[in-house]
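Sample 1 of the test manifest.
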Amino acid sequence: MFTIVNREEMAGGTVILNEIEAPRIAAKARPGQFLILKANENGERIPLTMAETDPEKGTVTVIYMVVGKSTELFRRLKVGEAFQDVIGPLGQPTHIEPGKKVVCVGGGTGVAVLHPIARGMKQAGCTVTSIIGARNKDLLILEDKMGRASSELHVCTDDGSYGRKGFVTEVLKEKLDTGGVDQVVAIGPVPMMKFVSLMTKDYGVPTMVSLNPIMIDGTGMCGGCRVTVGGETKFGCVDGPEFDGHQVDFDELILRLRAYTEQERCSHERCKWEEGGNA
Amino acid sequence: MSTAKTTRQAMPEQPPLVRARNFEEVPLGYTPEQAVAEALRCLQCKSPACVQGCPVGVDIPGFIKHMAAGDFDKAIGRIWERNSLPAVCGRVCPQEIQCEGNCLLGRKGEAVAIGNLERFAADWERTHHVCELPSREAATGKRVAVVGSGPSGLTVASDLVLKGHEVSLFEAFHKPGGVLVYGIPEFRLPKDIVAAEVSCLQAQGVKLECDVVVGRTVSVEELFEQGFDAVYLGVGAGLPKFMKIPGENLVGVLSANEYLTRANLMKAYLFPEVDTPIPRGKHVAVLGGGNVAMDSARTAMRLGADRVSLVYRRSRDEMPARKAEIHHAEEEGLNFELLCNPVRYLGDDKGRLTGIECIRMELGEPDASGRRRPVEVPGSEFVVECDLAIVAIGAGANPLLTRSTPDLPLNKWGYVTANADTGKTGKKGVWAGGDIVTGAATVILAMGAGRKAADSIHEYLTWGW
């Protein structure tokens, strides 16, 4: 059983952390890899990149925003309750080159995925400058942890309620102008990764992004997670989740992520309505 | 000769237009009277050719003799001696080219309906629970890891657990059954049946572990470190092939693997009662001509499509699907666009599929497969309008496990190299069988490969070679 041993609410309850018992996965997982989780018998298989692993304790941690029925079902699971299925670790781990000067850019819950990568890079002797952002102060997560994983941390909010007012790309531009940046890692909403990649391309700075396309099995069997990278079709689940941001066709990815918008809305509405009826 | 002797008992079926809109099984199964009448047709040949045609060598006249006497319990017992999945095989084996294809009666008239009889015996047992499970030999203390719970893995697990070995069956998905569960639709093989066959194995002592992706969660090497004495790889050929033509990543173009997995494993046809959605196309094009294409097309009809077209580049005679499936699909209203090859997908400004530009083909000289090669007719381009396209043009070797097992010899297409008689691979203690060795084939061939490998593994565990 994949029992939840720790649960936290962040960003006013819109973002949830679950630490889950999964010893086999915890023993193998490396930064950048993802899991597939399923709440119950009729649940969907949802891919989430791991935020933390503890091989000694035998646990893995995911942090996700509640956006639809499946994440709503995840949200309702209490400590001591279990996910019916957790599969992993899937995808390729992050390739970390020691001693580089790296800028890590994170937006929204992408910061949760960015954190173990930034920490891994710092441990490998990289100089890590991090820029994290959220729409407002309440939605900002993991500021402390990102601070510890970085030599330098910048915080932005869209509305200026905390840190610097504006987008992460503005701070990034300053860093790029200063020069000396070997690599950028950008993880967050697809438009953010797209604009970061467009910007770094001008500066010729290699940029790695982590994608979360729609998929079922996570083992290369369904091909639902097709992304175009450098004009070639890749499978997000086995070739990724990390890709060269300069090569990714983000516009196609955005359209593909909308494939089931209507059904997702229907499912979520129903779920909320049923909860209302039971209350 | 009476007519009962000469005429094959017809399988009762749901009427085409009724079944084309539901997911219930198409054939309803024989009544006990029909089963006996059909069994009485068997000539009980002294050297039965039907058995030669069975990849797992079921004693066909033997079990039919019991059925003719109305002793269904003994019949199923006899089948179980060679086949651990009779309810499955009775439904999905290509009997017309195996046992029934060899039946003496078939030379002048109709072959004995061996598949229908096997199915009846298995269903009878499942609903009446009359028969004792086959007994297990004394424990040997040897441990075998079976990777993949599809037809070949289930066969290996069943054979080896009965021989007294400790068997762990690893499945990457959250449910066991492999292609029987994610690939073959409910209306052809109800999932309860697969679940029942798997529980039977568990009752015999097989330890099932789902959600374990061997190659990721644990490697083959680690299985040995954990104390397994032998490993069987039956992971299937799970890598979808695409046409590699422009527009293939439009929303609305799915691999058959994805479409069928959504429908079958995730039961998305029940959405929103279950949480996984599936695209419900109005005009659906299915690319390909095999069983998977038929399953996809018939699923699309059941999901309410107005028109489903099968786009296939050769002619009907070259279609690799089972004859019964083509016939069933046609009865249900499938539209055939034969000698027709997709050139590119067309989409709108939202990135959604609106049609496929195709070109007409004609048959030229025979190619390597012995089938006449389709050649394009210049200037014959036309558009098949559709909002959903399902690509069912075959599968390749999924590299996930093989790449994580560096010393496992593969052929140039990435399939595992294994001895055809024993399933032995080039890595010590590792056997392989089914689609990961042969490329996409049938359930029963995978089971046959599993049977041979199980014999070889048993010898290895007993004698050490």
